[in-house]
Amino acid sequence: MISTLKISFPIVGMHCASCAKLIERGISRIPGVNSAMVNYASEIATVDVEDGVDDQDLAQAVYDVGYKAVFADTDRSEGKSAEEQKDEIKKEELKKLKTKVVVSGTLSAIVMVGSFVMFPNWVLLVLAIPVQFWAGKEFYLATWSGLKNRAASMDTLIAIGTTAAFGYSIYSVIFGGPTYFDTSTVIITLILLGRLLEAKAKSHTSDAIKKLLGLAAKSARVIRSGREIDIPIEDVILGDKIRVRPGEKIPVDGIILEGESAIDESMVTGESVPVDKTVGANVIGATMSLHTLFQ
After folding, report:
1. Using CA atoms, how far apart are residues 185 and 181, in angstroms rounded to an integer?
2. Where does residue 63 rank: exposed (0-12), middle (13-18), buried (19+ CB within 10 A)?
3. Axis crossing angle, helix 17-28 with helix 137-148, rounded to the nearest 10
4. pTM attached to this predicted model
5. Secondary structure of 260-293 in HEC code, one letter for each residue
6. Using one digit for the tens of pLDDT, what is the confidence trace for 210-251?
7. Cα–Cα distance between 95 and 79 in angstroms, integer?
8. CATH code, 4-75
9. Of 59, 139, 168, 249, whose CB neighbour count within 10 A is largest?
10. How far apart are CA 54 and CA 58, in angstroms?
11. Which residues form the HMA domain (predicted)?
């Protein structure tokens, strides 16, 4: 019988739900992959694979469709977790995106004003080129990757639309006629601005979630074979009896078997008044026991 394994890893570079579908399709082509699901909101891929499929195969499949998979045990990880590497990559991308938004925004504003005050067409062309092919480079790369995989995304629409406006404007510069450099540059700038705002919002949300997770207990006092031992919270299994002393955080969700206490659940409910809990009551992990010992 072939054993299977479920693997989850972060992915960097997605901009829409179509990106997630494209990555799923690319991963599913790998021999030995039974299923692949990519969550665009969390930027996490979950893959059900058979023995013999390694991280390098998955990373290459994601790279082939134009994105980046992050694993902890790579040569460049330097002992960092996949999430830490992802955060570093996202911060670097955010800095580059800020630069692109500032430069393309400035040039787009000049092009737009120049279109009204009748700047020479060749001047507008020179100003529009960096926005179209430097700031908008990622749209072309994503479009090319999509075409190779017979798929289209939002980037495809942006690349086609702005290229049409830019190409017709070049024709007008040569043979005469109206130009639309302001249209192509403003569209690219606004899309990049939207992605910058989205990236900042996701970054703030991620930081808030990490702070919330940081409130959880790191270890649990478990009773096994009649002895009380401290173990990492990851090693707690279903059916373990956990002893919680006054002033300690409850390690995991559970049911009170012995004793009673007042529980501070403010970090979950926002209610500052402690809740009295007795035998049979449910308790929530990361909340705090205030009074007596229980298990």
Report:
1. 6
2. middle
3. 40
4. 0.69
5. CEEEECHHHHCCCCCEEECCCCEECCCCEECCCC
6. 666 666 677 777 877 777 787 777 777 787 788 888 877 878
7. 24
8. 3.30.70.100
9. 139
10. 7
11. 5-70
